[in-house]
Amino acid sequence: MNRLQEKYQRQIIPLMQKEFAIKNKMAVPKIVKIIVNVGIGDIAKDKTKRQKSIDTLVKICGQKPMRMAAKKAVSEFRIREGDIVGLKCSLRGKRMYQFLDKLISIVLPRIRDFQGVKKNAFDKQANYNLGLTEQIVFPEVDYDTIDRVRGLEMAIVSNTDKVIQARRLLELMGMPFEK
Which among 7, 33, 88, 96 could disulfide-bond with 37, CB atoms 3.0 to 4.6 Å apart, if both were Cys? Predict the structure, then answer.
């Protein structure tokens, strides 16, 4: 069992039950999945660069990403319907906890001038959205192997629709929110 998963089971569940007066421990909010996606619309036609982006995402997430196709054509961007414009990984279970642990303890502190992540980046379903401007903050990514510095987005999906509970869950897990 992962360190963060064990912390959730032993410390966070009882604490959240007490704070929010939840009687059943199965009703305590939890993280369901983490979705990591990268936009590659500018290199969609170049197969070698696209493969480098896929390999980088495999190193970061530990699994092969899905290729996301354009739903409609946009002539200004020279995109046709069905062209690959993005890559997406949905992490669940053991990989999700490993990724979140790595994100909180290694990746976020490596960002230059890091003051914490925004507290108000929750959507209406209480999912937390986080964007990084460069993928080289991940320790698995070697700067010499990438063709261009790219950003990536992460959505941390919880099973609650209450932002207060989702924020508290992430705080207890160690997410470094700004002061």
Answer: 88
pLDDT at 44 (0 to 100): 62
Residue 132 tokens read as: 């990084």
DSSP 78-146: TB-TT-EEEEEEEE-HHHHHHHHHHIIIIIGGGSTT---B-TT-B-TT--EEEEES-GGGSTT--GGG-
Q: Which fold has domain 3-173?
A: 50s Ribosomal Protein L5; Chain: A, (3.30.1440)
The pTM score is: 0.88
Which are the contacts of 69, defined by CB distance < 8 A and separation ≥ 6?
81, 82, 83, 84, 85
H helix or E strand, kind and range, residue 171 = helix 163-173
pLDDT tens across 15-45, in order? 999 999 999 989 999 999 999 998 887 676 7
93: which residues sit within 8 A by CB, 6+ positions away?
Answer: none
